[in-house]
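Question: I have long wanted to understand how a fold can be written as tokens. Here is the record:
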Amino acid sequence: MKNYKVGEAAEILGVSVSTLQRWDREGRLKAYRTVAGRRYYTQKQLNEQLGVTDDGRKNVIYTRATADLAIDDLANQERILTEYCNATGVIVDEIISEIDSGLNYDRPKWNRLLQEVEGQKVNKIYVTHKDRFMRFGFDWIEKFCIRHGSEIIVVNNPKTSPDQELVDDLVNIIKAFSDRLPVLQSYMTEIKNDSKLKDLAKSKKANLSNYTQISADNKFKTMQAVAARSNPAYSQDKKQEESKVKLNETSYTAHIFTDGSCRRNGTHKGGHVLESDKSAWAYLIEYNGQRFLDRNGRFGATNNEMEMKAFLESLKKLEELGLTQQPLLFTLDSLYVIKSVSNRFGEPWIEGWKKRGWKKANGKPLANWRLWQEIDIELSKFDMAKLKFEWVPGHTYSEGNNYVDRLCNEYMDQM
């Protein structure tokens, strides 16, 4: 079982190093010491602090890229997945990186991982995109893992699925098909000389003699499309348009983005917020071809408080628009809010807080419990079965998330 340095443990728990040192002095979370006197924490300690049940199975980060893209792509995937796991309180036991095509099912590390899944040694596998794990047939492999008690978590970052790699895979498929054309030609000769098939072809008005030409024409057209797609002259705007993940407008009535921010003066991550620290919230609602937005802020609020406030104000606006019973998509970069109000990662935390009288599992008062009460009251007006929550890493590929983040920063600039 892995041990963690103080800095590593602090990042996983989402607190500062000084907070961990204080917990050590208070006996709240005692650090072990090496022979040289250096502090460290065990995985078991972090699991208990995070409330994670350890069943002995491991959590794995899997990254893959082709040789041409490997250097930057693998590092980017690992960074995104590590940030995600740290934000969700997941202890990562192993990071697997592989340089190979998504069409190759003989990847050694990938196959070893599946063998461990089959042996029920793996809890969850984290990937940035479906095609990082398997180019085709992901649904099948996902069901295979579920049958053996494992789960594949797809963070869904489209930037980790390069267009060029898809083009390369398509070229390989076309090449493999082309290599088989002589064999198909020999089959065509047999088919043409088969009297029974000739009669069947006549009766159904089938023109089998054109089969080879049709195949060649289709192959040529496909290769033309691939060549155009990989040509530097291909429209850059078109590439960008295709790379975006577009919302199916028929699926959701509105798309909501919320964000909260806090600027800390002279403090570090996990430290206390000063009364002079600026904080702000913002939301954006895209509905019926229109945009509805609002923002505000105050001094001395935490980042989580502003995330909650943004979410609450968006709910109020949705109620005002008469959308409480409509299918809605929320895109947030706050896992704290998502895990609190949705069942995407298990039972919503807010349910446990309510049962305990708005207290945490350790009996201590819940931070911002009055604000959570307001959110709970507002959510009770919505059809929760029609609400979908989507997490995105902050400051990355989501245009809506970047927009509300910009609104927050502009507001704090004016404070």
Remarks:
- The domain at 1-50 is CATH 1.10.1660.10 (Multidrug-efflux Transporter Regulator; Chain: A; Domain 2).
- Residues 205-249, 266-270 have pLDDT under 50 and may be disordered.
- The chain is about 45% helix and 20% strand.
- The longest strand covers residues 254-263.
